[in-house]
């Protein structure tokens, strides 16, 4: 399928977002579609910033792994050693590595094995969720699902716990850890944690259908993203990220991070340390899906090709991503 066919899919689906393809930073295709703000009829551009939901779990992983590199944490560090009396239902043997690989078995505040429609899930008091510590009541009270290391089960709460452990081990806030240890070395100058209730003019509002009307996602997501996702970024910054990551400019343990730790046949993928991996090739993948946001970016280190789709609707990215993959 050629890029002309991808454009046809975009037209047929009413795609809202950005499609970007480059090879080693040289743009082969970059185009924006739809509106960033439907109330004021503001169009998306290739420079628009989009929330990428779980796409930023990879950034959380790298912030944590940079602390491992510096000896502040270890993969074997137990969550309990830093949680103290908080979150008592997290088992004593759950480690940083278990959390990074979605094998911790801890109960999840947003369990995607249970929630069939992400747009129906609403977090209470989203305006209060401005810090990682503020998530503690949400994370608490969820029984263990299985013994640590037993199997893979995608866990949003596990990455909030990782952010919490990183904060307590380093003494620095999660947002600053990601800015200093991931965004800055990657040259991601237009990526940041934006409050949903004061989005700047260059950021897309996320939309989802509610009662037959498209409304913004402001009541569906935490007002400020934390470890399990939600940062805002651009297609160009994602491209810069992949190049910096594979050049070892963020952490030098790239081979270990992208080494397959678990097969995930139900997703037709594998998983490393905070990153999805193609089922059979070396391609590394970031994916995000939430109310009013969908995102997929793949990078093939052998060819240098990056394919990125960002959308400010829940389903928007998927038909485009499938077309690009073909």
What does this structure look like?
The strands form four sheets. Strands 2-1-14-13-12-11-10-9 form an eight-stranded antiparallel beta sheet, sandwiched between helices. It starts with a helix and ends with a helix. It has one domain: Beta-lactamase (3-Layer(aba) Sandwich). With 326 residues, the protein is of the alpha+beta class. It is 28% helix and 19% strand. The chain has ten helices and 14 strands. Its EC number is 3.1.1.103. One of its GO terms (cellular component) is membrane. Keywords: Hydrolase, Membrane. It is an enzyme of class 3 (hydrolase).
Low-confidence stretches: none
Order of strands, main sheet, comes to 2-1-14-13-12-11-10-9
CATH H-level superfamily: DD-peptidase/beta-lactamase superfamily
CATH class label: Alpha Beta
The CATH architecture category equals 3-Layer(aba) Sandwich
Give the total of domains. 1
Number of helical stretches of at least 4 residues: 10
Our measurement of the CA-to-CA distance between the termini, rounded to an integer number of angstroms, reads 6 Å
Order of helices and strands: HEEEEEHHHHHHEEEHHEEEEEEH
Classify the oligomer.
single chain
Q: Which structural class do the helices and strands define?
A: alpha+beta
> Major β-sheet, in short?
8 strands, antiparallel
**How many strand elements?**
14
The value of Rg in angstroms is 19 Å
Mean pLDDT: 94
Helix content bin: 25-40%
Protein name: Serine hydrolase domain-containing protein
GO molecular function: hydrolase activity
Keywords: Hydrolase, Membrane
Organism: Kribbella sp. HUAS MG21
